[in-house]
Design a protein that fits this description.
Blueprint lengths: L4 E3 L5 E4 L20 E6 L12 E6 L10 E2 L22 E3 L15 E9 L4 E10 L6 E5 L3 E8 L2 E5 L2 E5 L3 E5 L5 E4 L5 E8 L24 E3 L7 E10 L2 E9 L4 E6 L4 E4 L20 E9 L2 E9 L2 E3 L16 E8 L18 E4 L9 H9 L5 E3 L3 E7 L4 E2 L1 H5 L24
Parallel strand pairs: 9-17
Antiparallel strand pairs: 1-16, 2-19, 3-4, 4-19, 5-18, 6-25, 7-8, 7-28, 8-15, 10-13, 10-15, 11-12, 11-14, 13-20, 17-18, 21-22, 22-27, 23-26, 24-25, 24-27
């Protein structure tokens, strides 16, 4: 096993686990070295513009076509949901959930995924689904790929070892990984348990946002993204391959490990990123920059300036604004916001009790649903001495989308749903005093 990486976002890479495997001068020679099969995977249409075109050539022990027929996976024990999200009506209420507990029952990454909300439609390549995951065992002889969308994985507790067909990626809380649509992988748990968040992106692949007036540098630097080098399994036996297709899960048995790519080249591959390397930009005078200034990755919608989904983080940083209410302001947004907390405390919410916004928890504020600091946070920030303050050991994030997100029936039935979430604003006082005439 190797955990070496190649760097750069969207680069053309070439990597081989056995020297001399990659063909020279062509992609599909009559015979590939070492008796391998050539196979191309396309993440975009053949005719996509060169700047947007994503594809890779894989040189593997057996082609992906070699498997038994897929059959629907028994949905009884699953908490996955897929588009369209019409089990429950979209909800204008502010919603918040406490963290899910790691289960006592043996649960791997796929079995431990819980769909919270979603919008759009995977059939039309637009929208997203938001999931939580809880797992306490590695996937054994079990592999997965998602034909509906790419998966942005955000661990909150415990490491993940993502063994993909293009190499291995290890991430811990504070790092993220993106598995492109169709890439097969399996998940091991080096710490025996893990919990976190997933954004399933049905739309255009995540890319780096344009910097505009920021200039050439800032936010996420392309060179800090890491793609794995080739590493392959040559194993035979009885294995299960699970596919997410059309909103449903399907299962097929195969007689070999599908992670058998000996070499590959191209620009369609999984990658990881360390959120500590994000170059935060913020105000140094007064008032707030909009939260879009914290965008790490964006999935464009085709409408300029309006994202299918943005991945935004709120990391440790200096707060120095003068004459300014420093926590996030009271707010209504045409974009829908699903938030999670990896560590620490979010500055718009007070307290660390289980009924607050704590690491592993999440909240959903849909299109035009009002939200903002709770009563305690508002009072504390209104009276705070405005000296430079370093906001240490905090990391919150947001999946922000132009799509209204409907909560799933399962999410609304969870005992972690904080049905009294709205209470946190009830103690906001009326401070208005009309001037005397």
């Amino acid at each position: 096993m190797t955990l070496d990486y190649m760097t750069g976002f969207g680069n053309e890479f070439a990597t081989e686990a056995i020297a001399g495997t990659l063909p020279e001068g062509q992609n599909s020679p009559q015979k590939v070295a070492h008796g391998l099969y050539a196979e191309q995977i396309n993440g975009t249409a053949f005719t996509a513009p060169r700047t947007d075109n994503r594809r890779s050539w894989l040189y593997r022990i057996r082609p992906s076509v070699q498997h038994r027929p897929f059959v629907p996976l028994d949905p009884e024990h699953l908490t996955w949901s897929g588009s369209p999200f019409n089990d429950e009506p979209a909800n204008p209420n502010q919603m918040r959930w406490s963290p899910l507990k790691i289960p006592a029952k043996a649960t791997d990454f796929i079995d431990g995924i819980v769909t919270m909300a979603g919008g759009g439609d995977s059939f039309s390549w637009a929208g997203l689904a938001v999931h939580l995951y809880i797992a306490n065992r590695s996937m054994k002889k079990k592999y997965f790929y998602n034909a509906d969308g790419e998966m942005l994985i955000v661990p909150q507790e415990g490491r993940l070892l993502l063994r993909t067909e293009m190499g291995h990626i290890e991430i811990n809380p504070g790092k993220i990984a993106v598995i492109p649509r169709g890439i097969k992988f399996s998940v091991d748990l080096p710490d025996n348990a893990s919990r976190g968040y997933i954004c399933e992106n049905y739309g255009a692949s995540f890319t780096l946002p344009d910097l505009g007036p920021i200039g050439a540098n800032g936010l996420a630097n392309p060179r800090d993204f890491q793609t794995p080098v080739a590493a392959y399994d040559d194993a035979e036996g009885e294995f299960e391959l699970i596919a997410k297709f059309g909103g449903n899960l399907w299962s097929a048995y195969i007689r070999h490990s599908p992670l058998d790519v000996v070499a590959w080249h191209g620009n369609y591959a999984p990658y990881k990123y360390d959120l500590e390397k994000f170059m935060t930009i913020n105000t140094v005078s007064f008032d707030h920059c909009d939260p879009s200034i914290f965008t790490v990755l964006t999935s464009p919608s085709g409408m300029p300036g309006v994202a299918n989904v943005d991945f935004v983080i709120f990391p440790s940083r200096w707060s120095v604004a003068e004459r300014t209410f420093r926590p996030p302001y009271f707010h209504r947004n045409v974009m829908s916001e699903f938030m999670g907390l990896i560590k620490g405390e979010y500055d718009a919410k007070s307290g660390k009790d289980a009924k607050g916004f704590v690491p592993g928890g999440c909240s959903l504020h849909n299109c035009m649903s009002a939200h903002g600091p709770d009563a305690k946070a508002f009072e504390a920030a209104s009276e705070a001495e405005l000296k430079p303050q370093y906001m240490d050991s905090t990391l919150a994030f947001m999946f922000e989308s132009r799509f209204i997100m409907a909560p799933t029936e399962h999410a609304l039935q969870l005992n972690t749903l904080q049905k009294d979430y709205y209470h946190c604003w009830l103690d906001l006082k009326k401070n208005f005093e009309a001037p005397e005439k």
